[in-house]
Amino acid sequence: MATPSPTDNQSRKLLGRLSLPERRFVADALRAETVGGVVLLVAAVTALIWANTPGLAESYLKVRDFHIGPESLGLNLSIQHWAADGLLAIFFFVAGIELKRELVAGDLRDPKAAALPVIAAICGMAAPAAVYVLVNQLGGGSMDGWAVPTATDIAFALAVLAVIGTSLPSALRAFLLTLAVVDDLFAIMIIAVFFTNEIDFLALGGALVGLALFWFMLRRGVRGWYIYVPLALVIWGLMYNSGVHATIAGVAMGLMLRCTRRDNEEYSPGEHIEHLVRPVSAGLAVPLFALFSAGVLLSDEAIAQVFSRPETLGVVLGLVVGKTVGIFAGTWLAARFTKAELNEDLAWPDVLAVASLAGIGFTVSLLIGELAFKGDLVLTDEIKAAVLLGSLIAAICACVLLKLRDRTYKALTADEDRDEDLDGIPDIYEENNPAYHLRMAKIYEEKAAEHRRRAEAAAGSGTGPSRPASSD
Length: 472
Prior knowledge:
By secondary structure, this protein is an all-alpha fold. The chain folds into 2 domains: 13-195 and 245-417, Na+/H+ antiporter like fold (Up-down Bundle); 430-460. It has helices spanning 20-52, 57-64, 79-104, 111-139, 154-164, 170-194, 201-219, 225-242, 247-256, 269-293, 300-306, 310-338, 348-357, 363-372, 377-404, 406-417, 434-460, and strands spanning 13-14, 67-68, 77-78, 341-342. A two-stranded parallel ribbon has the order 1-4. A hairpin with an 8-residue loop joins β2 and β3 (77-78). The longest helix has 33 residues, at 20-52. The termini are far apart.
């Protein structure tokens, strides 16, 4: 299989047709994300039920706050802490591989193709932060949570798509996926820069030495999980004790993997490892994080508090309004100043629907909420409730917008998947191939001949249409 190439931009189309290798990669990636998103959705609902059911709420708190781990290594952490700092490192490891692949073999490889998702992602993070700051400036709230509504949860967004059964065309799905990858990159930078307080330079130096050794062994072609897994755990532990958020270690290791294919390679090492680790991330790490982070009290008073406190209101409006306006405006600006035209099969309401879908901020938003208000447990829970409610409202808005265009999406998707010559390549990619037209002519000729044979057989048996009587 050839190495995936960036989308062809000669047509200067926004959200135009993907190259065939890129389309296949996006389909596989989104299929895995969708399954993980459904598991994530189940975990979040379980957490809410567990934490809000009388008689069970106390057990939820006991399990969540139970401490385990070696104190001598500075790793005697609560279950919730292990999920946030430990398991999410696996999630960010996969995110690092995805980002590396996009940079060296995907759409972000080509500056022209990268412009759209990068501009949209930057605007889609700046606008929610601006909305939060404005609300808290006017309401006299804390500015510490400005980064909470900036993140998009691609798995949760795709879970919503899976639940409502909407079939998005591949161009819109690829846009959503690439947007989320760029969004993850900036979220990682925000966590590293703004949520690192005191740094233990000795531990940080040890983590950097470990990362250098990790990189060196990769370049030397050293193989064996029994070498890399222990080294990764040591790097993670040192990074955690350095004061830099431990998930950064996962991202760094993911970015070091080679994601381009060499001769006679079906998959690059990065793609192979991602294929192995993604089920652990999507099926275990992220759902467990959701289970121990999403369990917040949702009483009438708590919900009312979400819409009355400036911090929580800023999060809700940032996700619902800021994300939608930011991504839509960023996409329009990219179209306006690059003189590119929107794909003729799509319309600007489609971009608006995807922009509202990106307002579902869950995993990273919950993590940033915990980091931003670490010293205030009550406000942390209220921020989490705001993330949940904001994501729910964004999901409902997106569902309404997507359903309005559902018939159009189904027609586009059916046309993209049509393969009448059964050669495994969608016909839309073979329109200019003479061999394809010869095959199709032969297929149509065989179908016509089969139809004639069946008509003659039916007529001979007397079951077919009546014929005029013979003149004999």
